[in-house]
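Project outcomes to date are best conveyed with an example. Our students and postdoctoral researchers have been running inverse folding experiments weekly, and each run begins with a structure described purely in tokens. The record below, which covers 52 residues, was selected by the lab manager from last quarter's runs and is presented without edits.
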């Protein structure tokens, strides 16, 4: 009986750890994509030199 609860708690801990790892991974991917999008200059005003 005690072994069953230990296995259940280990499984639960692994599931929680996996969920947190996936969440952090997808958050990192999202941050990188947002950074690359802002770095590429899409949506930025075009540079037009009007002084001369």
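After processing, the design step wrote out the following sequence:
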């Amino acid at each position: 009986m005690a072994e069953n609860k230990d296995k259940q708690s280990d499984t639960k801990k692994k599931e929680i750890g996996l969920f947190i790892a996936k969440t952090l991974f997808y958050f990192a991917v999202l941050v990188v994509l947002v950074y690359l999008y802002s770095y590429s200059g899409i949506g930025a005003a075009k540079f037009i030199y009007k002084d001369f």
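The helical segments are 2-40. Residues 5 and 11 are 10 Å apart (CA to CA). The training component of this project remains on track.
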